[in-house]
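Re: weekly structure request thread

Next one in the queue (115 aa):
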Amino acid sequence: MTTSTARVLAHPSREEIRVEGVLHALSDPIRLRIVRQLAGAADEQACSRFDLPVSKSTTTHHFRVLRESGVITQFYRGTAKLSCVRTEDLDALFPGLLDSVLGGADRQAERLGRS
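Done, posted below.
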């Protein structure tokens, strides 16, 4: 008998996503950096692709906050945990919010001389 051992992560449904949770998640510089990188990627990204100035456990915390607030979705492919922004859900619920926040973050990074 074969049993599925696939790991499934909990995500809020579209209806459960709240603007205050999204804004809270995006208010942290590390989490905003993660979302900027994910939004600029052509495909989902493995957590190991992020070079963040925090410990592995803190990185895990930041990804969990983003997932639980509905900003990103995460899933396992083999042993890799992949992430991508829930652009379609966020745009349907809060039109223009994600683009505005990411655009503002890009302009701030340019103004401060950061990528």
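The first strand starts at residue 45 and ends at 46. Helices lie at 19-26, 29-40, 56-69, 87-93, 97-111.
Next request, please.
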